[in-house]
Amino acid sequence: MVTRSRRGEFSRVQHVGSRALWETGLQRPRGSCWVRSASENTACVLNTLRGAESSGNSGSVTLQPCLFLLTDVFYVHKEFNSKIPGTISCKAPLVLDESCGCCRQASKRPLCCSVLLSSCSDPPQSWLHFSASLAPSAWLVDLQCGRMWLYLAALLGLYFLRRWYRERQTVENLREKYVLITGCDSGFGNLLAKQLDVRGLRVLAACLTQQGAEQLRKATSQRLQTVILDVTRTDSIAAATAWVKEQVGDKGLWGLVNNAGIAIPTAPNEWLTKDDFVKVLNVNLIGLIEVTLSFLPLVKRARGRVVNVASTMGRLAMMGGGYCPAKYGVEAFSDSLRRELLPFGVKVCIIEPGAFGTQILNTQIMKDMLQEVWGRVPAEIKESYGQRYFDTYYEQFLQLLSTASPNLFLVTDCMEHALTARHPHTRYSGGWDAKLYYLPLSYLPAWCQDFLLTLRQPKPAQGI
């Protein structure tokens, strides 16, 4: 049975065939499982030792090692550190009780390893030493690690499956939805108008020129209608708003896509004037805001969508001029608008394209623009930079333009999803350069961004 040594040691091993059970303390009916959880196991050991301490030897009880954790040993030691002056130890090959249902299941588990818990180099007088060489049924540590990774993989799988399912749910009655797109003369707006027309939506394409409107009508069905809109002129916006009201009637405007934008002039800030900044800001930010405010009542009526085209340059300012400040402004305006319109059932989405071969990045236009800007830079500023700086900057800028992707559908597919999906994203990154370079770079510390973005920057003539 259980014996207590002079130093307070409790230890007994009963051999049953090829099995050995650790038995201490109180009587326990055979055939029942002692513990169901780690916390109950700890309480079991404590109660057993308390009983043995108070009543000496009074029978036997089987502790199931399959549920015994190292943390339990620490709890036991903490409880009895001051009560038992000696050392409690048990060294035996532990196997499970075949009469216990839990143990019969556990005995099918694979081998684990030996577990040894001992004190530090200077152990307290009553440290609990527990050493168990686990038999083929000892599987706890490996099983817990294996289950953890299994559960994690299952959770990740369920997450991506749910996301895949939600992303493919579309809005009903798309053929009855009206969508207004600005900047449809070319580029993203032109391609998006054609895509939505193919899907059966009622597209209202706003073009800057009559020529652009006529070309778009020839390439689409009779459902698509065009209107002339200059986003920098209030009277043009008002006229377009009145026309759209007549078209949509009581249904309201399901989608507003603010796509119109320009990128030039773009150059180092010191080379530009206030008018250069104002020109870009008026189109890319102020015009976008005015158009949105004008059409917002119609969008609220339909509980629809506002899709604002920003840029990766709205997260990472890589060049001078008004383009980056304007796109930063679009990001901020869209974020505040999204929160304000949430109670009305209106969703606001932001499109952040990388570099694409649209008319905005036309190589010849950019060449002429840079030459024109450099030609009017004051002599003092020119001297501080030097002709060599301009030549290097000019070549690097053209190299950047040459990397622009011709696959505009990577962006228009994002716009289409934002308009037609039941659960649109808040932000869409269009293009692999946006996903793999610009977006990750935008999350780095400022000093790291500065280092990477200025690594190949030419040195000014009067630079330090």
Question: What features would you describe in this structure?
Answer:
GO terms for molecular function: oxidoreductase activity. The chain has helices at residues 38-55, 70-80, 101-106, 140-167, 187-199, 210-218, 234-248, 274-302, 323-341, 363-375, 379-385, 387-402, 409-420, 432-442, 446-453; strands spanning 3-4, 10-11, 13-16, 19-22, 89-94, 115-117, 129-134, 178-182, 202-207, 225-228, 255-258, 305-309, 347-353, 427-430. With 464 residues, it is of the alpha/beta class. It has two domains: 3-141, no CATH class; 173-453, NAD(P)-binding Rossmann-like Domain (Rossmann fold). The protein has a seven-stranded parallel β-sheet, sandwiched between helices. Strands 5-7-6 form a three-stranded mixed β-sheet, with no helix packed on it. The chain has a two-stranded antiparallel sheet with strand order 1-2. Helix 8 packs parallel to helix 9 (323-341) and helix 10 (363-375) runs antiparallel to helix 12 (387-402). The longest helix is centred in the middle third of the chain and has 29 residues, at 274-302. The model is unreliable at 1-42 and 57-141 (pLDDT under 50).
